[in-house]
Structures are given as C-alpha cells and as structure tokens.
Write a structure and sequence with these properties.
The chain is of the alpha/beta class. It has one domain: Rossmann fold, CATH 3.40.50. Helices cover 48% and strands 8% of the residues. It is built from 15 helices and 6 strands. The protein has a 6-stranded mixed sheet, sandwiched between helices. Strand 1, helix 3 and strand 2 form a beta-alpha-beta unit. It is elongated.
Length: 348
C-alpha cells in the first residue's frame, strides 16, 4: 500500500509541477513583454527599457517601415516626430555603445522579418568604427534572435522577466510610450558643473598620429558589417548621420594628436557610403555654436533631447547634409577649425 501511495504522490507532484510550468509559460506567452510572439496587447502594461532583450522582438513583430539604429546618441529620438516630419512609421532600436557588428546583426534580422523596410537611420560613432573587428556592445541572445521554440525556456521561465516585466508593470500600471522607448539622457543634469563630475582636462602629448592610424579596422568594419547590407537592400534608403559630440571630446582628441586620424576615418566612411545611390549622409559634428555650448551636454558626448529633435527636422529638410561634391571640403574645414580652437576657453 505504501508503495502505491508513493507512486500516486509522485504522479500528483509531477502533474502539479507540469501544470504550474505550463501556466507560467502561458502567462509569458500571453503578455510577451519581450515581443517574441506578438505585438503589445492593449489589456496589459509594458515597460520598454531593455535594448538587448526587447529589440529583437520589436524587429520580428512590430509594424514599421523605418528603423533607427545606433548607440546612446540615438536613444532620445522621438519616433512620433519621424511620422510628423517624414511620414514614416519608425521604431527605435538603440544599443548603447553600438559597434558595427551590432548594427549588422540587427540589419540581418530586419531583412529577415521586414522585406519592405523603407528607411534605415544609422548613427555612426567613429570611435567604435575603428575598434577591433568582431566586437559587440552586448551581443544578441540567440534564444531571442532566432525562431527556435526549444531554446525559449530561457525566456519562458525567467524569474526576472516574470517579476520585472510582467508583474510589476501590471501592479504599477506602468507603460512606456513606444515613441519614448529607451529615453534616458533627457533626465540627466546638463551644463559645465554636471560635466565636471566626470571630466578632467587632458594633458597635451605633443604628438600627432598618422592620418591612416585608424584606417585598417575602419575599412574592415565597413566592408564586412555595413556596406553588404546597403548593397543587399538597394530599395531601402539609408540615412547615415554623425552626431555632434561636445568640444571636450575634441579637446581629448587634440591632446592625443588624433584629430587628423579622425577626420581621415570619417572621410573614408563618407566616401564609401556616398558611392551608393540609396545613401544620404548628415554631418552634425561641425555645428560649432552648438558643440561649444556645454549647457547642451550632460557629459563630454551626450547632448540633450532638443538635438535629437533638431536632427530629425534636418533629415526632413536636408540641413547639414553632405554630398560627394562637398564632404572633403567640410571635413578639411572642421579639421582646420579644431586644430586652431582655443580649448581652454571652454574648459579652463
């Protein structure tokens, strides 16, 4: 009798366990906070603050005709403004510290799940484009980037997913408007006093790096991670932009003697991209009045939300666009200006 009771108890435990696991999985699939199976449902609350885990699902299941790709320089774009100014239904797929391989990984997913993509906006940070090939900021979890249901256990039975992205948002009735996904730097303090907490004026090295110092890695990253997608997506317009770092960023470059190398790298990137008829390039780094006013910045590179709005208007009307005919002159003028600038006037 005891043996039978033990067997019966074991079966009950197994049934209860399987039922509990099935209910947990059903809950995750129903709410789906990482959008692996469907778009957000109006009856639930969603917090969108996890770039690595939520971007792949947004690519797979959201409705959109354009995307924004890039680093933290892109997080404060308001996608509603893209609709108002250009008539585009845009989603933002920012990855903090994005490298070319991060951009390439997302472009592969986009081509797989949305063959009708109209426009791709890509913010380029030159520092990351001459990084060692193969580097990614965080990587893309395989179980979120593929359609293999068997490895979804990492999502379906994830304690943090259930607690932080299902239970808490419902209890707090917290929602992230899609146009404000990943907004962050707008909540920071701005100005010289804030920047002083994290920035120290550099010592001049007195050396000048060769102009081709960054070229090998830049060429490899462009030829392997960016240009193939532009060639494969010939019916898609690529809007490439260089965001405006503050003068303190260039102060550092001046100190290490890398300004000619940076300008050469940017020129190499522009020259390669402008050879494609489906590419437009916008260069905001020579907005001298803006970059020398540290009230716009919360550190030496991150600008306020107003600049993201301004860049959006520029994409619509062509302001700060550079072409094959003038990009070399634009870069040469900026190099001359940077080399002659009195940096201590902004940061004594």
């Amino acid at each position: 009798m005891k043996i039978i009771s033990y067997k019966k108890a074991f079966r009950i435990i197994i049934v209860v366990l399987c039922t509990a696991l099935s209910l947990i999985a059903a809950l995750v699939i129903l709410v789906d906070p990482f959008f692996q199976y469907h778009k957000p449902l109006s009856c639930f609350h969603y917090v969108i603050d996890n770039q690595i885990s939520q971007n792949p699902g947004m690519i797979k299941n959201f409705d959109y005709d354009s995307v924004i790709l890039g680093s933290s320089m892109t997080v404060n774009f308001d996608t509603l403004l893209f609709d108002e100014t250009m008539g585009l239904n845009t989603i933002k797929l920012s990855v903090n510290a994005a490298y070319p391989l991060d951009i390439s990984t997302y472009l592969e997913l986009i081509q797989e799940y949305n063959s009708d993509i109209e426009t791709v906006f890509i913010g380029i940070d030159p520092l990351n484009y001459h990084a060692e090939p193969g580097i990614m900021a965080y990587g893309c979890p395989e179980y979120l980037c593929d359609d293999n249901l068997f490895n979804d256990v990492s999502y379906l039975f994830n304690r943090d997913v259930i607690r932080e992205y299902i239970i808490k948002p419902q209890l707090k009735k917290a929602d992230t408007p899609l146009n404000q996904a990943y907004w962050s730097w707008m909540y920071m303090g701005y100005g010289k006093e804030t920047i002083a907490l994290s920035y120290t004026a550099p010592e001049m090295t007195g050396v000048t790096l060769p102009a081709d110092s960054f070229m090998d890695n830049t060429i490899f990253n462009m030829e392997n991670y960016i240009q193939p997608h532009i060639e494969n997506m010939e019916d898609t317009k690529f809007v490439i932009f260089f965001p405006p770092y503050s003068i303190l960023y260039w102060y550092n470059c001046m100190a290490e003697g890398s300004i000619p190398a940076y300008m050469a790298e940017i020129g190499e990137i522009m020259g390669r991209l402008l050879a494609y008829p489906n590419v437009e390039i916008y260069f905001f780094q020579n907005n001298y009045e803006y970059i020398t006013n540290l009230e716009h910045y919360c550190d030496y590179t991150h600008y306020n939300h107003d600049m993201n709005d301004y860049m959006t208007y520029c994409f619509a009307d062509g302001t700060y666009r550079v072409t094959e005919a003038d990009y070399r002159e634009v870069l040469q003028k900026m190099q001359d200006w940077l080399l002659a600038f009195d940096y201590e006037s902004c940061w004594p």
